[in-house]
Amino acid sequence: MADSPEQRYAAVVEALREAPGVTQGAPGRGFGASALKVHGKIFAMLTSRRQFVVKIPRERVDGLIAAGAGERFDPGHGRIMKEWLALEPESPADWLALAREALDFVGSQG
Which structural domains are found in the chain, ordered by start? Predict the structure, then answer.
């Protein structure tokens, strides 16, 4: 049986929580409550809709969407976020690889 989105996200957290500058918010309600952050900026999270969301370069998001790997993240206020990729709970994508990519991207933004 496949791991649940929560289990997959927990594995990402476990793998990255010791990386320099990485913290995790406390579980709760609200945008990015339990998100992974680097230097205080969100780079990966599991939404209340159980989507795995990462912040990566816009061109990379475009390519992954074109390949059918996900969609742009819509936080619900009608403004699609161009540098955020949202994956459905059953996505076969490598969540950890994408989270590492997001960590590098956000961490390099100073």
Answer: 5-107 (3.90.1150.30)
